Amino acid sequence: MAAPSSSVTIRCATSADTDPLVPVLAEAFFDGPVADWLIPDHDDRRAVYHRYFTLVLRHGLDHGHVDTTADLSAVAIWYPRPEPAPPSTAENQAALEAATGRYAPKFTLLEAMFDVFHPRKPHHHLAYVAVSPAKQGQGVGTALLNRYHQLLDERGMPSYLEASNARNRELYLRLGYRDGEPLRLPVKGPTIWRMWRGPVGADGPPGFPAAETPSPRRSQ
Ligand SMILES: CC(C)(COP(=O)(O)OP(=O)(O)OC[C@H]1O[C@@H](n2cnc3c(N)ncnc32)[C@H](O)[C@@H]1OP(=O)(O)O)[C@@H](O)C(=O)NCCC(=O)NCCS
Predict the structure, then answer these.
(1) pTM here?
(2) Cβ proximity of 28 and 56 under 8 Å
(3) Mind listing the pLDDT tens digit for each residue in 74-84?
(4) Which residue has the CA at smallest separation from atom 29 of ligand 1?
(5) Does the structural domain 10-211 have CATH classification 3.40.630.30?
(6) How distant is the alpha carbon of residue 119 from its chain centre?
(7) What is the pLDDT of residues 8-49, one digit of tens each?
(8) Angle (CA) 125 130 133, round 5°
(9) I need a labelling partner for 5 at 20 to 30 A (CA). Which of 99, 143, 198, 206 fits?
(10) Domain boundaries, the chain
């Protein structure tokens, strides 16, 4: 396990960072069970992921909060969710279909499943976090998330995410998240771990066990 790197400088991303950050997302998410499920063909995956993560990042910059590092090697896309997100618009769906082409049904299904099982309790949603493959395992992701968690802790605000593989789940457990009921993507698709991180002593949303010790603060 990498120690959180104290030398990582974190700042808010802007639209000027779009070009360097799209490849960070597309390359970091290129491998893994969800990528294999979404787009088995690697050439198609490369092309679609570039368009899809351009859409994802622009949406995050317009409607959420995006953190990056000074060297633009990492990105985290957060959405404050004081109340449930409004349903996706026809315009959003058209943009998703334009970006993902014949793979749109799987992307649409994935997003619909995430929406249905999304907690209703107020929280911030970590929609995406990615570190450039060359920089992974050096504490950058931990530093990036610790910074935002600190702000959430100061406000007593919980957070939620969907972990796409078992190794990431371990990272999030170390950062104070706990498991809810996992999702299984059809048919015989990968498991997605739904995870919640809340203030010490506070109840989680339905389906999440009460917080145990060690508390989120002490586990960082
Ligand atoms: C997950 C991720 C953001 C973590 O950032 P990081 O800087 O590599 O993580 P840190 O160095 O702070 O911590 C390392 C821990 O991250 C987790 N991790 C997950 N995927 C990893 C990877 N490909 N390389 C290194 N660590 C990874 C592990 O728990 C690891 O601990 P371990 O080495 O004991 O197994 C980054 O590895 C990444 O971008 N992975 C691919 C994209 C992804 O899966 N995003 C999250 C979707 S839920």
Answers:
(1) 0.94
(2) no
(3) 999 999 999 98
(4) 171
(5) yes
(6) 15
(7) 999 999 999 999 999 999 999 999 999 999 999 999 999 999
(8) 165
(9) 198
(10) 10-211
